């Protein structure tokens, strides 16, 4: 790794824009793959409004529309993926990244994405590259192209190698990325087994994302709509995730972990500060949302393992219908 690490950020929406800022603050040279917001970012950069970073305007060192626009002779130290996870989509994420990873086995791939079982396809496609799985806690939204609102100081990235028992150089790459994120002003933690953290985040995502996308409520707002039924639905989904985690041997994803995360929505309901979850943001903006990575992978695993998940299966089927209509796949 060079003194000024070279990093490609793929899918620079609200999360990617903040991580780009952090990495530049850490002394990295950052190339941004911007798709829908390319024109604005290329000409004006990003404007970030944040209680943690202040109000700042900044530009990527290089801005491109596609990885095909990156120089073929450039070898990045890291490719940071902050695009949404859409397993099964064509072209696959691996195919999209191939131009910058082919013949560069030392480039580490950081998957800062939601859901479970999202790493295997990348690891299979690039077996020599370090794969680092990341769990994001960063409440932010891109209110318009290039304008990022970071609602509260929370900025935590939990990281670990995939698989957990990885070669020493892969673990070293993960440690160095943690150091860069901390140096840039965020919080980052290295896990020996990142899957525990990924499944703990699923407690939140599997419950609140589809509920908010379907009801058009914030998390706290939904709890106020039909006591005790709203609470029972969200809590029941969390308990189904706990049962599935237990069945597949994921440690630490238990009722206490669920209570801790459920308390966030309860506090927001009490304070009137409900959060607009990412799926709800996507529905409001007419964008595809992460049905399969967050819910589909979980319900299929549940059926495979014989774990009853009637609540999650119901919201999955409804959310899949909403997504198909949103994308024009159904009338």
UniProtKB/TrEMBL annotation:
Residues 7-161 form the Ketopantoate reductase N-terminal domain. InterPro entries: 6-PGluconate_DH-like_C_sf, 6PGD_dom2, ApbA, KPA_reductase, KPR-Related, KPR_N, NAD(P)-bd_dom_sf. Residues 1-17 form the signal peptide. GO terms for molecular function: 2-dehydropantoate 2-reductase activity. One of its GO terms (cellular component) is cytoplasm. The keyword Oxidoreductase applies. It catalyses: (R)-pantoate + NADP(+) = 2-dehydropantoate + NADPH + H(+). SUPFAM superfamilies: 6-phosphogluconate dehydrogenase C-terminal domain-like, NAD(P)-binding Rossmann-fold domains. Keywords: NADP, Oxidoreductase, Signal. It holds the Pfam family ApbA_C. It comes from the Eukaryota. GO terms for biological process: pantothenate biosynthetic process. Residues 193-321 form the Ketopantoate reductase C-terminal domain. Catalyzes the NADPH-dependent reduction of ketopantoate into pantoic acid. Belongs to the ketopantoate reductase family. This is 2-dehydropantoate 2-reductase. It comes from Aspergillus tubingensis (strain CBS 134.48).
């Amino acid at each position: 790794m060079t003194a000024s690490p070279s990093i490609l950020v793929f899918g620079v929406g609200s999360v990617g824009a903040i991580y780009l800022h952090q990495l530049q603050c850490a002394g990295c040279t950052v190339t941004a793959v911007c798709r829908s917001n390319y024109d604005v970012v290329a000409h004006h950069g990003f404007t970030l409004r944040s209680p943690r970073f202040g109000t700042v305007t900044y530009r990527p060192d290089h801005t491109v529309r596609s990885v095909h626009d990156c120089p073929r002779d450039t070898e990045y130290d890291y490719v940071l993926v902050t695009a949404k996870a859409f397993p099964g989509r064509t072209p696959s994420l691996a195919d999209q990244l191939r131009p910058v990873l082919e013949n560069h086995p030392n480039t580490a791939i950081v998957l800062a994405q939601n859901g479970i079982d999202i790493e295997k396809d990348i690891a299979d496609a690039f077996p020599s590259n370090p794969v680092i799985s990341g769990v994001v806690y960063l409440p932010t939204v891109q209110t318009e192209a290039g304008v990022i609102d970071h609602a509260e100081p929370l900025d935590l990235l939990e990281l670990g190698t995939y698989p957990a028992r990885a070669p020493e150089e892969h673990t070293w790459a993960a440690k160095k990325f943690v150091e860069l994120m901390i140096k840039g002003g965020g919080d980052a933690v290295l896990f020996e087994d990142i899957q525990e953290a990924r499944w703990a985040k699923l407690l939140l995502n599997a419950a609140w994302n589809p509920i908010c996308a379907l009801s058009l409520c914030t998390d706290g707002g939904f709890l106020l709509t039909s006591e005790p039924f709203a609470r029972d639905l969200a809590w029941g989904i969390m308990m189904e995730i706990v049962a599935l985690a237990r069945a597949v041997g994921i440690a630490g994803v238990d009722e206490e972990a669920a209570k801790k995360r459920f308390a966030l929505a309860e506090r927001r309901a009490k304070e009137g500060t409900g959060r607009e979850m990412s799926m709800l943001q996507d529905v409001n903006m007419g964008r595809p949302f992460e049905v399969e990575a967050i819910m589909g992978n979980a319900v299929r695993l549940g059926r495979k393992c014989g774990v009853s998940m009637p609540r999650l299966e119901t919201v999955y089927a409804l959310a899949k219908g909403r997504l198909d209509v949103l994308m024009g796949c159904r009338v």
